[in-house]
Design goal:
Elements (H helix, E strand, L loop, with lengths): L7 E10 H9 L8 E2 L4 E10 L2 H15 L1 H4 L6 E3 L24 H11 L3 E3 L13 E3 L8 E2 L4 E3 L5 E8 L7 E7 L5 H11 L16 H9 L1
Antiparallel strand pairs: 1-3, 1-4, 2-3, 5-6, 7-8, 8-9, 9-10
């Protein structure tokens, strides 16, 4: 059933080998819209509607797996979905395996490769099952960065949260040294409570807008 916000039309295209098409007929899985191309492959196009490309990819995947996968195999070998609104675009956070970025047609892949400017390329490697893993892959290893949650809390790319404390390096006046304490919490709210529970915030203030003071400065300020 179509939802009220499923207004955008997307086109799914199947490239079916000649023999496989007749296997579908034998299994009473008919694709009446299929047409034979000059290279003796059948091409079938089917329209799907959704609020965005990610939702359509999910719909098409469910339809394909239910009706065609038993005969045609993995969808990456036969299925592409267009991108009429150019929702698939390159940026530093681009993830090749994201659902929105699956089953790309040639036009979209060519555009992404151009946008990536050397960072992206067509995926031609084969996995264990003999099929490609994705349509496109990164040619350069992405450098993952820590996320600064507060003045004193950071999250690593792996999701671990650390509490940062700054002290002074002996013999080198004025140079700060950062000590990171690993937390068990996975969310910011729980991390703040854990810091308070463990007493790590005795010399730190979560609400401060300035960089953390050194241990010596804090003690001196408290004494004053």
């Amino acid at each position: 059933m179509m939802k009220f916000n499923d207004f955008q039309k997307y086109q799914a295209t199947l490239l079916i080998p000649y023999e496989k098409y007749f296997e579908l007929i034998y299994e009473t899985k008919y694709l009446l819209e299929a047409r034979l191309s000059t290279d003796r492959n059948f091409i079938a196009q089917k329209s799907f509607y959704g609020c965005n490309r990610r939702s359509v990819v999910e719909k098409v995947s469910e339809w394909y797996n239910k009706n065609l996968r038993s005969v045609l195999g993995h969808p990456l070998e036969t299925l592409t979905i267009d991108d009429p609104l150019k929702e698939v675009s390159y940026d530093e956070e681009f993830v090749c395996t994201d659902l929105r970025n699956k089953y790309l047609d040639n036009q979209t892949i060519d555009r992404l490769v151009k946008e990536g400017d050397g960072d992206l390329g067509r995926e031609e490697r084969k996995g264990i099952t003999g099929v490609t893993i994705t349509c496109i892959r990164r040619l350069k290893k992405r450098r993952k960065k820590e996320v600064q949650l507060t003045d004193c809390l950071v999250r690593t790319p792996g999701g671990t949260i650390y509490f940062k404390m700054t002290g002074m390096v002996r013999g080198k006046s004025g140079k700060g040294k950062v000590k990171k304490v690993k937390l068990a919490s996975k969310s910011l709210d729980k991390a703040k409570k854990e810091v308070a529970r463990r007493g790590l915030n005795n010399f730190e203030n979560f609400t401060t807008a300035r960089a953390p003071e050194t241990f010596e400065e804090i003690v001196a300020n408290k004494a004053a």
